[in-house]
Automatic annotation (TrEMBL):
Belongs to the D-isomer specific 2-hydroxyacid dehydrogenase family. The keyword NAD applies. Coiled coil: none annotated. Its EC number is 1.1.1.28. InterPro entries: D-isomer_2_OHA_DH_cat_dom, D-isomer_DH_CS, D-isomer_DH_CS1, D-isomer_DH_NAD-bd, D-LDH-like, NAD(P)-bd_dom_sf. It comes from the Bacteria. One of its GO terms (molecular function) is D-lactate dehydrogenase (NAD+) activity. The keyword Oxidoreductase applies. Keywords: NAD, Oxidoreductase. Residues 9-327 form the D-isomer specific 2-hydroxyacid dehydrogenase catalytic domain. Pfam families: 2-Hacid_dh, 2-Hacid_dh_C. It comes from Streptomyces lividans 1326. This is D-lactate dehydrogenase.
Length: 331
C-alpha cells in the first residue's frame, strides 16, 4: 500500500525513495499538508509530513475521513499537531525523537559567525568589486560569554564548540546537563544569562510555557551589543518586540533560522509575490540581521537519520510495535 509523503524537498526525495524501497511504496509530493491539500491523501492509510505541515483538528478530520490512520512526522518538533484530536480519531502519530544534534548546533554557529563578522554584507560588496572594510568590524568571541538556553543534545553540541572557541559558558534549563557542567558551564537564572552573555542561543522546544521565551522584557535585559541566535522554533521569540529593539539600534547581530509565522512561507518560492507579512519584511531589512529558511537540520547526515527513523516508525506501525517516537496513542 502506498505511503503519501507531503512537503518533500528536492534533495530529500531520493533519500526517502531509497529508504522505503525495500519496505513500502512511497509517493513524494512537494506541496505541504494543509486544509487545501489534505483531500489528496484520500485512500492512503499512512501519510508522512514535514515540520511545517498543518496537523490541526480540521486537517486531521479530513485525513481520517479519507482513511488515514497513521501520520509519520519527519521532525522532532510536534507543536503543529493536535494530539488530542488525533487521539480521539484513533490515529497513530509518530515523530523523529532524535537526529544529529551537530547539524543544528553547527548551523547556529554559522549564523553567529556570519552576523558577527558581517559575512553576508562583505560577500555582497565584493560581488560589486567594493573591497572596503567600512562597517565590517566584528569581535573576537574568544574570552567572551556564550549563554545557552536549553542544554539538551543540541545545546550541548553548541556549548562544546563555544568551549573550543575559548568562551565562558552560562546555561539555563529545567535540568542541568552534566556534560555541559564538565565544560565549565555555570547554570544561572534566565535574567542573569541574558544580562551577562555576549552571545545568546536558543535550543529549547516550543511549548505553551516557552512561547515568547524571549519577549520584550527579555530583549531589554540583553546587552545592546549582544548577538542573538535562534535555530530552534520561531515562536520562542516575540518577533514584533525584536523588531522594535532593532529599530532602536540594538544588538550586534541577530541570526534567525526560524520565524514564528513561517508556515506558508518557508520552503516555498515567494520571490515573485508581494510580501504580506510586514514584520518579516521589516526584519530582513536590518543590516545586522540574517534570516535563513529553517535549514539548520538540512544535512545529509541529519536528513538521512530522519528518513531512516520515519521508515522504522512506519514498520513499527505495520507490525504493531510501539517506540519512544509514538506520540499517539498515548501510553
Amino acid at each position: 500500500m502506498e505511503i503519501l509523503a507531503f512537503g518533500v524537498q528536492a534533495d530529500e526525495k531520493p533519500l526517502i525513495e531509497r529508504a522505503f524501497r525495500d519496505h513500502e511504496d512511497v509517493r513524494c509530493l512537494d506541496v505541504f499538508l494543509n486544509e487545501d491539500t489534505a483531500p489528496i491523501a484520500a485512500g492512503h492509510e499512512i501519510v508522512s509530513t514535514s515540520v511545517n505541515a498543518d496537523l490541526g483538528a480540521a486537517v486531521l478530520e479530513i485525513l481520517a475521513a479519507g482513511g488515514t490512520r497513521m501520520v509519520a512526522q519527519r521532525s522532532t518538533g510536534f507543536n503543529n499537531v493536535d494530539l488530542d484530536t488525533a487521539d480521539r480519531l484513533g490515529m497513530t502519530v509518530a515523530r523523529v525523537s532524535y537526529y544529529s544534534p551537530h547539524s543544528v548546533a553547527e548551523f547556529a554557529w554559522a549564523l553567529a559567525m556570519a552576523v558577527n563578522r558581517r559575512i553576508v554584507r562583505a560577500s555582497i560588496r565584493t560581488r560589486d568589486f567594493d573591497f572596503r572594510l567600512d562597517g565590517l568590524m566584528g569581535r573576537d568571541l574568544h574570552g567572551r560569554t556564550a549563554g545557552v538556553l536549553g542544554t539538551g543534545k543540541i545545546g550541548e553540541a553548541f556549548a562544546r564548540i563555544a568551549h573550543g572557541f575559548g568562551m565562558r559558558l552560562l546555561g539555563w534549563d529545567v535540568a542541568e546537563n552534566p556534560a555541559c557542567a564538565e565544560l565549565g558551564m555555570r547554570y544561572v537564572a534566565k535574567d542573569e544569562l541574558l544580562a551577562r552573555s555576549d552571545l545568546i542561543t536558543l535550543h529549547v522546544p516550543l511549548m505553551a510555557e516557552t512561547r515568547h521565551l524571549i519577549d520584550a522584557t527579555a530583549l531589554k535585559a540583553m546587552r545592546d551589543d549582544a548577538i542573538l541566535i535562534n535555530s530552534s522554533r520561531g515562536g520562542l521569540i516575540d518577533t514584533a518586540a525584536l523588531v522594535g529593539e532593532l529599530r532602536a539600534g540594538r544588538f550586534a547581530g541577530v541570526g534567525l533560522d526560524v520565524y514564528e509565522a513561517e508556515a506558508g512561507l518557508f520552503f516555498l518560492d515567494k520571490s515573485l509575490e508581494a510580501v504580506e507579512d510586514d514584520t518579516l519584511a521589516r526584519l530582513v531589512t536590518f543590516p545586522n540581521v540574517l534570516v535563513t529558511s529553517h535549514q539548520a537540520y538540512y544535512t545529509e547526515d541529519a536528513v538521512g537519520q530522519i528518513v531512516g527513523t520515519t521508515v522504522r516508525n512506519v514498520l513499527d506501525y505495520r507490525e504493531g510495535r510501539r517506540s519512544e517516537n509514538v506520540l499517539v496513542p498515548r501510553s
